[in-house]
Amino acid sequence: MKIFMIGGTGLLGSEAAKVLIERGHEVLSIALPPLPQGAELPPEMQIEFGNYIEMTDEEIRGYMQGCEGFVFAAGVDERVEGPAPIYDLFKKYNIDPLKRLLTIAKECGIKLYSVGVQASTALNAPRGCARIRTGICLLKQTRIRRARLASES
Predict the structure, then answer these.
(1) 67 near 2, Cβ under 8 Å?
(2) How far apart are CA 21 and CA 25, in angstroms?
(3) Residue 55 CB: number of other CB atoms within 10 A?
(4) What's the chain's Rg over C-alpha atoms?
């Protein structure tokens, strides 16, 4: 299966890409530059640098055409601090873009998706889309995150 991923160079995205590629899937990702220092990315993953928030719907459609799955591993998470109420920040960078991206995904015929940010609990996907599991459980994500944060301190 061909999968389009946003955020393939980050913690969740890079791990999800490894699992997907190990399972025989093709992964195309866009991510913000620069490549994170020490990032261990699968060499089979196609990566292009760009900001999905600044891209037009047509540019996003160009990436999604021919894909069967979509993984969103970008946005802000609990490491980002902002002014109260924090909901506004999460809505701007997680919920609003996801609504737009999942609508485009549905228009492109993508029926499988996975969301790897906090917004996944606050978002209803368009009808016709179903979540896919990337093979990474929340416990493993937490352990990986703690190990990286510990090594960075």
Answers:
(1) yes
(2) 5
(3) 16
(4) 15
Contact between 48 and 29 (Cβ < 8 Å):
yes
Model pLDDT, residue 131: 46
Separation between Cα atoms, residue 62 and residue 79, nearest integer Å: 31
**What's the mean pLDDT when you consider all of the chain?**
79
Nearest to 12 by CA among 96, 110, 120: 120
DSSP reduced 3-state for 23: coil
Two structure tokens written together for 130: 């179903």
Place of tokens 């530059």: 33
Q: Assess whether pLDDT exceeds 70 at residue 144.
A: no
Q: How many CB atoms lie within 10 A of CB 111?
A: 14
Rounded Cα gap, residues 35 and 89, in angstroms: 24
Q: In what order do the strands lie in the sheet with 2-6?
A: 46-49, 26-31, 2-6, 69-72, 112-115, 130-131
Q: Is the peptide bond before 85 cis (omega within 30 degrees of 0)?
A: yes
Question: Structural domains in the chain?
Answer: 2-152 (3.40.50.720)
